């Protein structure tokens, strides 16, 4: 908790230093919303967890991707229409939707089902995209919000699970072997993941009951956390992984959520006050909050038949209440679990950013490091791994000693992207992507033309190497332009082709002079241009030469001369004292103009 | 102004004449101007001359001729056409060596009309100059004689681009009808 003191100190310094303000980030967090494309709502007949899991697994087996399910009648994911045809009517699947659904006609009236439908409607109607692309409020950065919990005695966890019919013996051994780290709950963000949202409520016993969750506030948090889980699921799919979330909200009207404290009146490191009480209400009363929540997560895994589980405590702080705990913290998680602590309003981020904060904290649950750094304010401070559980280099850390040019990432500035480092930290091996390099006539490339495989996200520099008398014309395929070399970032399989062109060399011995053409009483000045054919064009069919006058930025064709004629061109009635610039180009039989030879004279 | 001068001279000559002559002449013209020579070279001129006696040895004369020639522009060697019409008037002093042979010398003023056309364009101009000549008149019959003469003229003309001399040396002969 020393970090909390540090943050509090920083905040106090900013508050009481007249004429100074703490550095704030300027973050571009409007990133592509790829997860919305193809977003699908699946309606189910049965809502018990067994039936839901059965439908989920069936859809996945048929080729669909399920992002989030619940103990409700709806699930969300990406199911192609061809798959939809095969699954409707089976395993309790009633319908598949791609367009907004009229909630008035919903057969099921439970809250979580309605929330799922509302999230789907917002996504498919463009509301989520509109909100995401509009300027977003931003609070203080989530600096040092990835905490390490103290050693917790595994026997406490075992005791909490004694009457829950959950066998924790194997996990206890692993926990002991890992010095208090609880492997087995969020080792990698793959497979099936259950997350519980616990809406902490005060019963007024100690602090007074100042703020009570409203149904709308609960629905908003549920919506944001469903959206955040969908985001992660889509990113997993883009890495060739499957991550399917099960949301289990425990609403504040449940007696278990009521405890004596009003959390927003406390420091964040006092979260044990309300967490221990809530967990005790739920039947987990042995040991500290980490032992109790871990035991609850074990039960969650067992109950929902999930591979991983974690818990997120939400405390209510409506407008009028502070947007942070009294020490300045508002959202944090323990690296590797077991829980996230968030507020309804998280500093200045705005309610619509809850999804990103939740996603960021979920990254920490699965061992992802922070990547944000701002001088004088803090953040990651090196490329070193932030945990020993999966010691992946934190190569996207924005600290100057690590990566001065970090890429957008959810773990950097809550951006709608993940980098390969984050992917590896959460257990996603980075897939290999294929780069096919091709060339046309007239040159080769470095690397040589062929097929190569690289880690996804790798940037490959491809240099075009032209043969004698050729040059790079342009790149085609997944690259464009004529810059050489070109950098290809392998966000997927890509093909680039270097197209070369035979150089049509400029004419040689170009001479321009102004001559007088006179009679007895009349005269005119004539610009006389002469040139010679370039020997390097001897193997080309040059059919003519074009003459351009260049005047500032204007280039105007003034005439042409057949290649077989005398290579001379007259421009009559020239100004006596005017300076002229001409360009002469050879034209081949394509016809294509070659390089220009320029001459300037007065 | 120019026309007034010419008419005045003719009236003066007509008033003082006792008798006169008309000469039809052809001459070989060699221009003095180097550019003239280069572009057009020399050529033949055709013209006539009207003379009135103002005494035993003195005559006033009025003449006109034409010179047309085709040449080449200096660089492009395109065709260019020149037309000159010199109009001259002056006094002639005759020396009667015998009844039929009379050498003479003459001086006068000259007014030249100049026109040139080619690919560059067309231009017209005119200028004043002088003429001096000497010759020999041989009277063959009472009303008819022959004339041989050598003349030199100089007349500077200013056109759009150049100032040049359209005069030169002229050697010619004529048929003279006496009245």
Secondary-structure map:
The complex is a heterodimer of chains A (602) and B (179).
Chain A: H1 2-16, E1 39-44, H2 49-62, E2 65-70, E3 74-78, H3 81-87, E4 93-97, H4 111-124, H5 127-133, E5 146-147, H6 154-160, H7 169-177, E6 191-202, H8 215-238, E7 243-250, E8 258-259, H9 272-281, H10 289-304, E9 308-315, E10 332-334, E11 339-343, H11 354-365, E12 373-374, E13 378-379, H12 410-413, H13 420-425, E14 432-439, E15 443-446, E16 450-455, E17 459-466, E18 470-477, E19 486-489, E20 494-502, E21 508-518, E22 523-532, E23 542-551, E24 554-562, E25 568-574, E26 580-588, E27 593-601
Parallel strand pairs in A: 2-7, 5-10, 6-7, 6-8, 6-9, 9-11, 14-20
Antiparallel strand pairs in A: 1-3, 1-4, 2-3, 10-11, 12-13, 14-16, 15-17, 17-19, 18-20, 21-22, 22-25, 23-24, 23-26, 26-27
Helix pairs in contact in A: 4-8, 6-7, 6-10, 8-11, 9-10
Chain B: H1 2-16, E1 20-31, H2 34-39, E2 43-53, E3 58-72, E4 79-94, E5 101-118, E6 121-141, E7 144-158, E8 163-165, E9 168-178
Summarize this, please?
Chain A is built from 13 helices and 27 strands. Chain A is an alpha/beta fold. Chain B is mainly beta and 179 residues long.
């Amino acid at each position: 908790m020393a970090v909390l003191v540090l943050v509090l100190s920083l905040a106090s310094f900013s508050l009481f230093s007249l004429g100074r303000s703490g550095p704030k980030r300027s973050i571009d967090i409007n990133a592509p919303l790829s997860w919305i494309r193809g977003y699908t709502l699946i309606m189910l007949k049965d809502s018990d967890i067994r039936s839901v899991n059965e439908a989920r697994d069936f859809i996945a087996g048929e080729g669909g991707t399920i992002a989030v399910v619940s103990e409700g009648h709806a699930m969300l994911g990406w199911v192609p229409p061809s798959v939809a045809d095969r699954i409707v009517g089976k395993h309790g699947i009633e319908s598949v939707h791609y367009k907004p659904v009229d909630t008035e006609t919903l057969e099921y009236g439970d809250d979580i089902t309605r929330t799922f439908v509302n999230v789907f409607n917002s996504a498919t109607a463009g509301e989520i995209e509109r909100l995401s692309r509009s300027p977003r409020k931003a609070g203080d950065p989530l600096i040092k919000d990835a905490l390490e919990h103290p050693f917790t005695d595994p026997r406490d966890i075992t005791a909490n699970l004694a009457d829950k019919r959950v066998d924790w013996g194997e996990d206890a051994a692993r926990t002991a072997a890992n010095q208090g780290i609880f492997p087995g709950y969020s080792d990698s963000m793959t497979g099936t993941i259950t997350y519980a949202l616990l809406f902490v409520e005060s019963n007024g016993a100690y602090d007074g009951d100042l703020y009570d969750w409203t149904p709308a506030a609960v629905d908003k948090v549920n919506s944001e956390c469903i959206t955040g889980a969908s985001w992660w699921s889509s990113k997993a799919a883009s890495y060739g992984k499957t991550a399917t979330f099960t949301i289990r909200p425990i609403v504040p009207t449940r007696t278990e959520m009521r405890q004596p404290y009003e959390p927003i009146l406390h420091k964040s490191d006092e979260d044990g006050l309300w967490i221990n009480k809530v967990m005790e209400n739920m039947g987990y009363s042995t040991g500290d909050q980490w032992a109790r929540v871990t035991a609850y997560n074990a039960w969650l895994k067992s109950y929902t038949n999930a591979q991983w589980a974690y818990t997120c405590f939400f405390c209510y702080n409506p407008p009028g209440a502070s947007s942070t705990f009294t020490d300045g913290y508002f959202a944090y998680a323990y690296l590797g679990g077991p829980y996230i602590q968030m507020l309804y309003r998280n500093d200045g981020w705005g309610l619509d950013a809850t999804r990103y904060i939740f996603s960021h904290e979920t990254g920490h649950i699965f061992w992802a490091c922070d990547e944000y750094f701002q001088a004088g304010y803090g953040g990651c401070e090196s490329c070193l791994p932030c945990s020993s559980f999966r010691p992946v280099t934190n190569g996207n850390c924005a600290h100057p000693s690590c990566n001065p040019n970090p890429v957008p990432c959810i773990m950097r500035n809550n951006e709608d992207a993940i980098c390969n480092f984050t992917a590896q930290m959460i257990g996603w091996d980075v897939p290999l992507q294929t780069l096919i390099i091709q060339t046309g006539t007239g040159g080769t490339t470095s690397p040589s033309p062929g097929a190569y495989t690289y880690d996804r996200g790798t940037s490959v520099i491809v240099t075009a190497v032209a043969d004698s008398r050729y040059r790079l014309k342009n790149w085609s395929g997944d690259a464009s332009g004529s810059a050489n070399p070109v950098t290809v970032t392998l966000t997927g399989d890509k093909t680039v082709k270097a197209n070369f062109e035979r150089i049509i060399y400029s004419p040689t011995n170009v001479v321009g002079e102004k001559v007088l053409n006179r009679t007895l009483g009349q005269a005119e000045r004539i610009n006389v241009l002469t040139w010679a054919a370039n020997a390097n064009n001897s193997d080309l069919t040059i059919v003519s030469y074009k003459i351009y006058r260049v005047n500032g930025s204007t280039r105007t064709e003034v005439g042409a001369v057949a290649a077989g004629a005398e290579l001379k061109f007259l421009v009559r009635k020239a100004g006596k004292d005017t300076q002229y610039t001409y360009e002469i180009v050879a034209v081949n039989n394509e016809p294509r103009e070659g390089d220009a030879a320029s001459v300037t004279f007065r | 102004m120019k026309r007034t001068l010419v008419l005045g001279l003719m009236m003066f000559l007509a008033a003082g004449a006792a008798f006169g002559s008309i000469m039809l002449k052809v001459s070989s013209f060699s221009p003095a101007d180097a550019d003239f020579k280069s572009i057009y070279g020399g050529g033949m001129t055709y013209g006539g001359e009207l003379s009135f006696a103002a005494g035993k040895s003195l005559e006033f004369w009025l003449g006109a001729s034409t010179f047309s020639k085709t040449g080449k522009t200096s660089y492009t060697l395109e065709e260019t056409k020149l037309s000159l019409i010199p109009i001259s008037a002056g006094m002639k002093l005759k020396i009667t060596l015998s009844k039929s042979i009379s050498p003479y010398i003459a001086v006068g003023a000259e007014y030249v009309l100049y026109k040139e056309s080619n690919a560059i364009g067309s231009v017209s101009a005119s200028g004043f100059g002088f003429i001096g000549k000497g010759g020999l008149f041989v009277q063959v019959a009472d009303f008819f004689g022959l004339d041989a003469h050598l003349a030199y003229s100089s007349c500077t003309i200013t056109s759009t681009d150049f100032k040049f001399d359209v005069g030169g040396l002229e050697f010619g002969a004529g048929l003279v009808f006496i009245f």
